[in-house]
Amino acid sequence: MLNVLIIGNGQCGNRILDAINREAFGKKSRFAKFYSQQKYKSNVETIAINTAINDLKEMKFTKAKDRIHIPHLHGVGANRNVGKHVFEDNKAHIMKQIEERGNFDVAFVLTSASGGTGSSFSPMLIKEFKEKFDFPVYALVVLPFREEGTLYLQNAAFCLRDIRESGVDGIILADNQFLKQMGGNVESAYNGINDMIARRLLFLLDALDSEMMMVTDLGDFKTVMSGGAGLATIGFFEADSEMPVKSAIRQALSPSGLLFSTDVYDEASRSMVIIKGDRKYLSIDDISAEVEKLSSSVGHVFKGIIVRNEEFPQVLTVLTLESASELENLYSIAVDAINYEKQKKERVSNEKEVDRAFSQIDGMDPSY
Ligand code: GDP
User: Fold this and answer.
1) Are 319 and 234 in contact, with CB atoms under 8 Å apart?
2) Residues in domain Tubulin/FtsZ GTPase (predicted)?
3) How far is the CA of 10 from the centre of ligand 1 (A)?
4) CA distances from 164 to 120, 124, 153, 170 (A)
5) Are residues 224 and 274 in contact, defined by beta-carbon separation less than 8 angstroms?
6) How far is the C-alpha of 209 from the C-alpha of 276, rounded, in Å?
7) 150 C-alpha vs ligand 1 centroid, how far in Å?
8) What is the C-alpha separation between 61 and 282, in angstroms, rounded?
9) Per-domain residue ranges for the chain?
10) Cβ of 15 below 6 Å from ligand 1
11) What is the SS3 assignment for 30?
12) Is 117 annotated as a binding residue?
């Protein structure tokens, strides 16, 4: 049995963690967190960390003892410099609470790249983990909608770089911009995206800790994640009717199944494909043919098969990327955002236009 730690930092990380706990409780009752046990096969500890108490209070499926509030007025206001100081001041307290949970085989840290708390806490927390513990740590990082503004874009660029330099064992990318076709208003798009991420992570945990017909384990996952440029994404497809397994695999590798925009045949470096379902849908020849097609352009592909009676085929793909053209696009927009913010600041401090306006009444008094 695997001992798994999942940490959600900041609002986005907290909400994805809550979606994971909701899926794991298996019911949508708001009292689930008080009365029921999580249905993980592995021993999973979940911890939510935030400076904003309201984000923690919003969580419906994560137990109170699993929510750590780091007081700092009303959050850190998207300022990563403030966030880093707050983490440093509270590091000992946070690490103590985590260490009390025991030993782990693997940890996942969930965060947005662009806010204040998650984006500044996550790289520093991962660095602490890598210095103190010897289990692998993976970051699941949510990229912003591109129209969310200059501060979020520049935060995303610096946060991702900080995470890469933290000693992390791999970064799984999920992109709000790419996933926004979920439709509806922002809130329902968030919920849709969070559910997508939660289901993929739970499938992954299931696959790493299951008795399978064809086995993939944590060692295989580590090998996949160590390939490529340290970046990865996850694909998923669940058939809602009888469907040839090869179509389900293709769907899980197609843009509609992925969390980040990439052409897997062009940019992926290593992969893991896990297929779940009733034995009658799992044609080994079809599975092998699809996996061979993928490995001819990707390199190594680990495959796993989990037999679940009476279930339609479900497929999870983990893909590490050797290049990511969409990330290059994001960085070029972020550079514009950083320059824009810099110029704006210079303009304000050089011209002091507002001061000039006030100076017009220097030495004058109001007359009534
Ligand atoms: P923090 O609390 O200071 O770490 O900031 P947030 O986590 O709110 O970061 C802001 C970024 O996260 C923006 O790019 C938002 O679009 C994104 N975000 C906030 N909440 C959610 C959510 O529930 N789901 C998703 N997918 N993205 C979110």
Assistant:
1) yes
2) 3-212
3) 7
4) 13, 11, 17, 8
5) no
6) 13
7) 15
8) 34
9) 3-209, 230-321
10) yes
11) coil
12) yes
Written as six digits, the tokens of 120 are 């500044």
What contacts 324, CB < 8 A, 6 or more positions away? 173, 229, 231, 260, 262, 267
259: amino acid identity, one letter: L
Q: What is the pLDDT of residue 185?
A: 84
The closest residue, in CA terms, to atom 5 on ligand 1 is: 115
Q: Which structure tokens are listed for 366?
A: 């109001």
Q: What is the DSSP string of 290-310?
A: HHHHHHHHHS-EEEEEEE-TT
pTM to 2 decimals?
A: 0.93
Closest CA to 23 of 204, 212, 176, 227: 204
Cβ–ligand 1 distance for 277 under 6 Å, the answer no
Which fold does the domain 230-321 belong to in CATH?
A: 60s Ribosomal Protein L30; Chain: A; (3.30.1330)
Q: What pLDDT, on a 0 to 100 scale, did the predictor assign at position 37?
A: 63
Residue 329 counted as an annotated binding residue: no
Query: Cβ(117) to ligand 1 under 6 A?
Result: yes
**Beta-bridge partners for 256:** none
Give the pair of three-digit tokens for residue 165: 């330099």
Fold of 3-209: Rossmann fold (3.40.50)
Alpha carbons 340 and 183: distance in angstroms, whole number: 30
Alpha-carbon span 209 to 203, nearest angstrom: 10
Q: 46's torsion region: left (phi>0), alpha (psi -120 to 50) or beta?
A: beta
Alpha carbons 270 and 289: distance in angstroms, whole number? 17
List per-residue pLDDT tens for the chain, 368 residues long: 899 999 999 999 999 999 999 998 765 555 555 445 666 778 999 999 999 999 999 999 999 999 999 998 777 889 999 999 999 999 999 999 999 999 999 999 999 999 999 999 999 999 999 999 999 999 999 999 999 999 999 999 999 999 999 999 999 999 999 998 766 788 889 999 999 999 999 999 999 987 777 778 999 999 999 998 999 999 999 998 889 999 999 999 999 999 999 999 999 999 999 999 999 999 999 999 999 999 999 999 999 999 999 999 999 999 999 999 999 999 999 999 999 999 988 887 666 777 888 889 999 999 99
